[in-house]
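Subject: Sanity check before I submit

Could someone independently write out the structure tokens for this chain? I want to compare against mine line by line before I put it in a report. The sequence has 327 residues.
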Amino acid sequence: MFTAIVTDKDESGYRSELRDLSEHDLPEGDVTVRVAYSTLNYKDGLAITGKGPVVRRFPMVPGIDLAGVVESSDHPSYSAGDRVVLNGWGVGETHWGGLAQRARLRGDWLVPLPDGLSEQQAMAIGTAGYTAMLCLMALERHGLTPGDGDVLVTGANGGVGSFAISLLNRHGYSVVAATGRPEESDYLRQLGATSILDRAELSEPGRPLAKERWVAAIDSVGSHTLANVCAGTRAEGAVAACGMAQGMDLPATVAPFILRGVSLLGINSVTQPYDTRVTAWQRLSRELDRAHLEEISHDIGLSEAIATADELLAGRVRGRVIVDVTR
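---
Independent answer below. Compare away.
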């Protein structure tokens, strides 16, 4: 038997609760993992509370991230005792996810956990840090270098934003952090932000083209914010878009793209090729400032995750929430 958060929807309504399950309840897969840690992402908050159409199949165990040890495997790349990490692939949406003490998964979705990273550290990074690294890799492919100018990070207090600031700073970039919580400015500067921008300057409808202010940006907000970010990006600059906390819409014009040559780079963190996932995690293990992990993250138990989901969606949670599924 093992414990999991189970989200269900039936004639009684939408609900999430802790349940004791049997391994016979687990879905199909060729690798069974003893989960050590999971996380609570924005998408997990939507899944647990029902405030967004995230869950596509019921009942569902939410949790788009997990790290643990292989218990049994029919997959040629993994054996019992291997340490693994997983992000995305519909886990927690269409396939039972990481907010449980056991998970049965397709081995093709897994990545070996790099040496030197613990399961707890991997989940302190999680999809947020992994996505931030994918954004950095995309901007690097575009040709961005540290001497080019300021890089804007929106949603700076969130998980992706926090890791983006830390990674950019580690590589020598000048970082502008956009936040709606000015009281968190010291925290953002500790991560490496050079300056702080009030998100109100970006969150309302703006002009098709604005003053050129940054050479690149990492945006996890979407909607009017992303439109204004593009409008303020310097000629031939690039914006890596990876989230939609403000909305899925993009109320913009083509002006930044055809008058300034700005590139909008979409970041898909769910179904990246295996080699890209391995590269991203290897780089995270080498390049991330480990001292920032304690600043960016904090632990809760599995029993606290349901209540914390509401706090997360309300914007009252800083950085990353690691879930210790053993308590």
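---
OP: Matches mine. For the report I'm noting this point. The chain is about 30% helix and 30% strand.
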